[in-house]
Specification:
Elements: H1 4-12, H2 14-21, H3 24-33, H4 35-41, H5 63-80, H6 86-108, H7 110-126, E1 139-141, H8 146-152, E2 157-163, H9 168-184, E3 189-195, H10 201-206, E4 219-223, E5 226-228
Helix pairs in contact: 3-6, 5-6, 6-7
Amino acid sequence: MAVLAPLIALVYSVPRLSRWLARPYYFLSALLSAAFLLVRKLPPLCHTLPTQREDGNPCDFDWREVEILMFLSAIVMMKNRRSITVEQHIGNIFMFSKVANAILFFRLDIRMGLLYITLCIVFLMTCKPPLYMGPEYIKYFSDKTIDEELERDKRVTWIVEFFANWSNDCQSFAPIYADLSLKYNCTGLNFGKVDVGRYTDVQSEHITSHQAASFPDPVQRWQGGHAAATD
């Protein structure tokens, strides 16, 4: 059952996942993650590579490369134990695969390692992960409107997320928060968001000290115009 449940979830997510992977950011990220595999396995590229295999086959992994890839698999499995969404799972795979690719390319040839690192830097500078643009019932606040809106009607309970566009955790949480707003938004319960990367003063006014460890993605609840405990 422990193996069957993730497989069912993966099959259920295939249509949404295919649209997600079709975006340029994720396509290029997948290409970088599989770069060493492609170079090592595809002729005629692999024929020019050095190898430490006893049979001298340059188009197959040597024992050290297999060891690095197995270590990568173990790290990804450990990190994905805390992942919630399919996007987070694949994001972890991409991130650690790039690290393993850099190690493998440097081990093969320092020039190839430098070239790979350069490509990764160019990718990070030119390709930003797409923001969630799906349906939602969420009110976006500024530093001037948040207090007025929260105190307007004491009968309304507000759940407000403090997010930043540069945070990968915030981007992963965006579709989950949007789904919650679609399911539970009603007359007495509203959902809001504040971009603390843009409105920095909101952080000191509304984010309490015990939430600092989760910044920039804490979620705060207001009831009757006053902040309520979220622990």
